[in-house]
Amino acid sequence: MSDHKRIGVFGLGSMGFGIAQSLLRAGHVVAGFDVNMDAVQRFQAEGGLQGEQYDILPTLDIVVLVVLNADQTQVVLDNIIDNIPTGTGIMSCATVAPLFAKDMERMTQVKGLHYLDAPISGGAAKAASGDLSIMASGTKEAFASLRPALSAMAQTVFELGDTAGAGSAMKAINQMLAGVHIAAMAEAVTFGMTQGVDPAKTVEVITQCAGNSWMFENRAPHIVDADYTPRSSVNIWPKDLGIVLDIAKDAKFAAPLTAAAMQQFIAAAGSGLGLEDDAAVAKVYAHNAGLTLPGEDT
Asked: Which of 86, 101, 108, 271 could bridge to 164 as Cys pair (CB 3.0-4.6 Å)?
């Protein structure tokens, strides 16, 4: 049996488009679906399968959902579940609560489908290069049916259990740390400015010291360069940290650092920065402290 599959990718945003490109480059026949028809047409121009959704769905071996949240995941599944063949593998990549992932697994299993709870990490560049990290859980059959897609999409696949939920739980841990680290990065860089330390010097020193983190090293240069092109936008974090805090509430677990970080992202979004790179949360700190960040008018 050929490892080249017929794959439908639902969601052609910055992550989904890169994933679709990686699957296409690996030799799969790939159809891209999105409410944004410009994105669909752009992917078709790169070699994506053309045709009507209702004609393509019955021919698919694999479905990859790269939509924004649980609501969109539910809507897509509700719309396609009766039109894809029994045995199709479904990979759900959105950040969702573990209980939601378990519900989707049960719903799809009733239809004879294989559901993989598979949130992703790595950003748009790694999606486009096929180098994502995927935190996955599901049955052996789900992993087997989706292995060709996983191989094309990811540098690392963490296999976290034989039922849905564990992948989403691990993604929640990752997002908790990532969101807190971005907010801490912004706080540290702007705190340094109050002490007369230029942001570029802070980056130079901290990236070689114990206070460094992956998020500091990746995001702080955006502030130095005054480049807020959204590799990962501010708007992602109220959503993702909101999911983390909901999970924590259900577990009766206090997460004060996460709550504090979320408030900074909410403030940034409320200030009109929602579509900027998430490093723009530094602008909230700078505004409150009367600081002028690099690239801003004095």
From this structure: 101
End-to-end alpha carbon distance in the chain: 64
Task: Report yes or no on whether pTM surpasses 0.85.
Answer: yes
Collapsing DSSP to helix, strand or coil, 31 comes out as strand
Write out pLDDT tens, residues 188-228: 999 999 999 999 999 999 999 999 999 999 999 999 999 99
Confidence category of residue 1, pLDDT binned at 50, 70, 90: very low
Choose the catalytic residue: 5, 102, 126, 171: 171
How far is Cα 27 from Cα 41, in angstroms, rounded to an integer? 19
**132-136 β-sheet, strand order:** 120-121, 132-136, 154-159
CA distances from 134 to 127, 137, 155 (A): 11, 10, 8
Q: What is the rounded CA–CA span in Å between residue 298 and residue 122?
A: 35
Contact 243, 95 (CB under 8 A): yes
| Residue 24 phi, psi (nearest 5) | -65, -45
Measured CA to CA, the distance from residue 14 to residue 123 in angstroms comes to: 8
Phi, psi of 100 (to 5 degrees): -65, -45
- What is the DSSP code (8-state) at residue 240? H
Query: CA nearest 126: which of 205, 197, 214, 45?
Result: 214
Kind and range of the H or E run holding 204: helix 199-206
**Strand pairing class (6-10; 29-33):** parallel
User: DSSP secondary-structure letter at 57?
Assistant: G
Among 68, 74, 91, residue whose Cα is nearest residue 11:
68
Q: Is 111 a catalytic residue?
A: no
